[in-house]
Amino acid sequence: MNIAAIAIKTIPDVNAGRRLHNIKNLSDEGVAKAMFHLHQQKTGSADLPVYLQKIVAIAVVTAENAEEQIRLLSIENDDEKSVLEAYVAATNGKQQVAWKGNQFEFLAIQYRALKYRVGNIPDFLQHIDLSEKLSLNNSQASPSLGEISCLLNLEEITEETLASTWQSFLKNENKIIHQSAITSAKNVFQVASRLNLDSYRDQ
């Protein structure tokens, strides 16, 4: 299968938050706390919009010689641009698949690529959002990746939020972030491998 299953992990973009809310003299942790609070007051939800999220890890799973190949792209020295460039190289020429790609993965990658002027990012509308396709765009019938993983007896996934990833990041628990991304990408790959993606692509 010429597909690339992806999963990403994000944290609040505190630099953007500082500028957007004109926040001064606060630590990154303090800025993120303010971002969550202000967004909750405005919308009733603490989940920040995708354009205010920074990518810290991208897991890519492909098939080479009928075996899974796993690649983890994670930020070192705060170099998010290099992660995006490595993502472009790792997925070049492959059909990209994610669980909630149109709401999260593909959208976040587009915003961050725009920020850093990273080229050769394919039109995310051409990628496959497995959650949408399996539920036929019926949000009430849309399970989580963790629930589908349980149904198919795949590796267990701990459902994480932006806030929980942020807490792991603050504690330097990068292994937790990385393993979560890898497990999610592996399970997306396994779900995709059971489908005739050509028939889903045109829906």
Topology:
Blueprint: E1 3-12, H1 14-21, H2 28-43, E2 53-64, E3 67-74, H3 80-91, E4 95-98, H4 105-116, E5 128-129, H5 130-135, H6 145-151, H7 162-170, H8 174-193, H9 197-201
Helix pairs in contact: 1-2, 6-8
Protein described:
α4 (105-116) links the parallel β4 (95-98) and β5 (128-129). The protein contains 9 helices and 5 strands. The chain starts with a strand and ends with a helix. The chain is of the alpha/beta class and 203 residues long. α1 crosses α2 (28-43) and α6 (145-151) crosses α8. The protein has helices at residues 14-21, 28-43, 80-91, 105-116, 130-135, 145-151, 162-170, 174-193, 197-201; strands spanning 3-12, 53-64, 67-74, 95-98, 128-129. The chain has one domain (3-201): Nucleotidyltransferase, domain 5. 33% of the residues are buried. It has a 5-stranded mixed sheet with strand order 3-2-1-4-5, sandwiched between helices.
